[in-house]
Amino acid sequence: MNAAEYAEQHGLQRVGARPGLWTYLQQTWGRRDFAYTLAKSRIQARNQANRLGVVWEIVKPTLNALMYGAIFGILQGGKQGPQYPAFVVIGVFLFEFFSSAMSEGAKSITSNRSLVQSLSFPRLTLPFSTIIQQLLTLAPMMIVMFIYVLLLGGAPQWSWLMIIPLLFLYTLFNTGVALICARLTVHLADLTQLLPLITRVLFYTSGVLFNVNTIFAAHPWVVKLFDFHPVYQVLELARAMILVGHPYNPMHWVYLSCFAVVVFVAGVIFFWQAEERYGRDI
After folding, report:
1. Are 58 and 140 in contact (CB under 8 A)?
2. Among residues 105, 46, 1, 65, which one has the least CA distance to residue 208?
3. What pLDDT, in 10s, does the model give residues 161-173?
4. Is the Cβ–Cβ distance between 149 and 100 less than 8 Å?
5. pLDDT tens digits, one per residue of 56-101
6. Secondary structure of residue 244 in the 3-state scheme
7. 237 CB contacts (<8 Å, ≥6 apart)?
8. Within 13 Å of residue 252, how many CA atoms lie on the same side as its CB?
9. Which end of the chain, C or N, has fewer beta carbons within 10 A?
10. HSE-up of 183 (CA within 13 Å, CB side)?
11. Helix axes 32-48, 21-30, angle to 10 degrees
12. Which helix (DSSP H) or strand (DSSP E) does residue 150 occupy?
């Protein structure tokens, strides 16, 4: 019997050894205050670097909505309907949550190299902290989004409350994506150079700026493909809950729920499996 086996027999564990999944999740939950504090400190640090501070979180998607809405409105020849401005606002503001979660989540381990290499804690805490940061940013964005919808002629409806379970599913999905990207960028650093391109492709293929049912009316098989696009489903469900008379497929709730749970669980397991490697591979 070697020394390692003897130590393990007496209840001692190797430094940095990966715990069981359930124990790992319990340890992560025990660090929830740390994750929340880290998220708030990042927001404060980022806002201090800009004169407008947190206002930029609102200005950026607003400018994107104005710019892309104007360009695509012209390209579609004014056939998009009277609710098109609100349609674009909802799409741009909600896509921003996915985009930020994926890009910032991908850097959650590599950008905290000194923390990972010097302290012992569940590394899952770092991407979770990133998601908390994005949620704290999302809250004022949602308020402004609804204000814009009202200014653009929308009217409050009870269906607006359905945005709450929708955002819950969206957060689950985005967390899973962030965890997968966080691990991949540790092993494939070049992935960070591709993420902006991937994000841009997803932006233009998620129905952020156009109505898929209208654009591909002559190709129903293309419309059917979007049933397998989780981000598109989020945007369509949000528009159906917020805009009057916006058609949607109720099965999107089922599809999105399945995607969210599967991607979240897969992301947690995929990230946990490499727990021992994060300290030495970055």
Report:
1. yes
2. 65
3. 999 999 999 999 9
4. no
5. 777 778 887 888 777 766 666 656 667 888 899 999 999 999 999 9
6. coil
7. 162, 166, 248, 252, 253, 256
8. 24
9. N
10. 19
11. 50
12. helix 125-151
CA distances from 37 to 40, 41, 110, 128, 193 (A): 5, 6, 19, 12, 29
Please identify which residue in the block is written with the tokens 């129903």.
220
Q: What Å distances lie between residue 26 and 21, 119, 142, 238, CA to CA?
A: 9, 18, 31, 33
The percent helix, strand, coil of the chain (3-state, each to 5) is 75, 0, 25
* Encoded tokens for 245: 């008379």
* CA gap 144, 32 in Å, rounded: 28
Write down the pLDDT at residue 239.
94
Residues in the chain where the model's pLDDT stays below 50: 3-4, 6-8, 10-12
Rounded Cα distance, 146 and 35, in Å: 29
How far is the C-alpha of 51 from the C-alpha of 62, rounded, in Å?
Answer: 18
Q: How far is CA 110 from CA 10, 107, 117, 198, 276, in A?
A: 35, 5, 11, 19, 15
Output the pLDDT for position 269: 96
